[in-house]
Amino acid sequence: MVHEAIPVLTPVLPGAIYDQLRASILSQQDAPGSALTESAVALRFGVARPTARLAIERLVADGLLRREPHHAAQVPVLSRDDIIDLFYNRALIEIEAVTALAGGGTVPPSAVRANRNVCIAADFAPHDIDFHRALVAGQPSPRLSRMHELLMGEIELCIGQVQSAHLISAAQVAAQHQGILDAIAASDAIRASTLLREHILGARDRLLAHVDRTIDG
Q1: How confident is residue 123, by pLDDT bands cut at 50, 70 and 90?
Q2: Which residue intervals of the chain are DSSP H helices?
Q3: What is the pTM of this model?
Q4: Were 134 and a residue from 62, 110, 180, 187 both cysteine, which residue would form a disulfide, CB within 3.0 to 4.6 Å?
């Protein structure tokens, strides 16, 4: 008797679901205000609810989802005041980071790789995010890195909106990044911090103008 081989199904791990949901949130496929219930995520990925729950909880911890007691997790809707506050605090931290890096002329290799990927990837937002994380991770203070991580989930939401609304091109982002890296390599802390401030606040202003147009429309 010949027995048919039984196909072995590869289990979908919470980390893989997290990655796909994160990408979907950044690209606005799961737009601000969208609810992500455990049952819907489980059905979407063909997994058990506990597996879906683990992925959702990680996204909540990262700030990419918010969940109130007895309610489903939702993609946050950031207000104008939220955006201003986020970018203000982000600029403070990242300027300190590039100032420290420029003091030693230290260019993090991971920032160089991330910027290269900004130019070649179909979606630049994840690599833009990686670039800024690499700058802060490359400086010597672990506390500064931890403060940055507290903001990064919501900052990722902002960067995702900038990309999805086509408010700036990948080439423009990469050129601005390169200017910052060049200033760090030259140990020019003033130029590095000035360029970073312009880069961050320019993105903020583009996003605020987009939010205002959306509200007025």
Answers
A1: confident
A2: 14-26, 38-45, 49-62, 80-103, 109-120, 125-138, 142-164, 170-185, 189-216
A3: 0.84
A4: 110
